[in-house]
Amino acid sequence: MENTRCAWVGKDQIYIDYHDNEWGKPVYDDKILFEFLVLESFQAGLSWITILKKRENFRKAFANFDVEKIANFTEDDVEKLVLDEGIIRHRGKINAAINNAKLFIELQKEHESFSNFIWKYVNHQPIVNNWNSIKEVPATTEISDQIAKDLKKIGFKFFGSTTIYAHMQATGMVNDHTKDCFCK
Predict the structure, then answer these.
(1) How confident is the model over 151-160, as pLDDT tens digits?
(2) Is 106 marked active-site?
(3) Over the range 105-138, which residues count as b (16 or more CB within 10 Å of their CB) and which as e?
(4) pTM of the full predicted structure?
(5) Which CATH superfamily is domain 13-175 in?
(6) Any idea what DSSP says for residue 116?
(7) Residue ranges of E strands in the chain
(8) Where does the chain bind Zn(2+) (predicted)?
(9) Would you call 40 a catalytic residue per the annotation?
(10) Does 183 carry a binding-site annotation?
């Protein structure tokens, strides 16, 4: 008997693995939180499966998501990334990743970790929703609106409320597995 999963998963093994092993599981590790921030910012306007299929290429192109290294990327690095067919070659998003890395480091210093900063929005506890169907799952919430507003004020790029809510789902700040999902 096969496990019942959230309706968005489909049959693609990369989606199945992501859903079963990562999506909705709380992440407090700054390195992983940063990885998801980079990936989510590149996802804006694209499907998540596109990003997942390029994840290893992103990992190589973006120094294994080492925030310090990315914060120090130069214009030469940007030019190499724009030519890298393994990633999304969007100059604005590449520059945003570098900008956001610098701001991420500032938030780490100010709050002892980025995890402390981001998780405070949910009182350091995952929000566990009880959706009957994927149709009930929102694209944004008041909390994602606030985080997006605060990050924009700090200077983060490519982080609207929808992207932030996706980040919250990916890192387990919210658990949006539907009631029938075995991961619930």
Answers:
(1) 999 999 999 9
(2) no
(3) bebbeeeebbbebbbebbeeebeebebeeeeebe
(4) 0.95
(5) Hypothetical protein; domain 2 (1.10.340.30)
(6) H
(7) 127-128, 174-175
(8) 6, 19, 177, 181
(9) yes
(10) no
Joined tokens for residue 143 = 């909390």
Domain boundaries in the chain?
Answer: 13-175
Q: Which residues of 44-68 are buried (b: 16+ CB within 10 A; e: fewer)?
A: beeebeebbebeeebbebbeebebe
pLDDT one-digit tens code per residue, 80-107: 999 999 999 999 999 999 999 999 999 9
Cβ-Cβ contacts under 8 Å for 109 (sequence gap 6 or more): none
Helix (H, G, I), strand (E, B) or coil at 123: coil
pLDDT for the residue numbered 65: 98
Query: Any catalytic annotation for residue 79?
Result: no
CB proximity list for 155: less than 8 A, separation 6 or greater: 99, 103
Tokens of 144: 């994602």
To the question of whether residue 111 is assigned a binding role by annotation, the answer is no
- Out of 8, 28, 48, 121, pick the active-site residue: 48
Residue 105's identity, in one-letter code, is I
Tokens 């539907």, residue? 178
177 known ligand binder: yes
**What 8-state DSSP symbol labels residue 135?**
G
Is the pLDDT score of 1 beyond 80?
A: no
The token pair that represents 121 in the structure block: 């929005």
Query: What DSSP string describes 32-47?
Result: HHHHHHHHHHHHTTS-
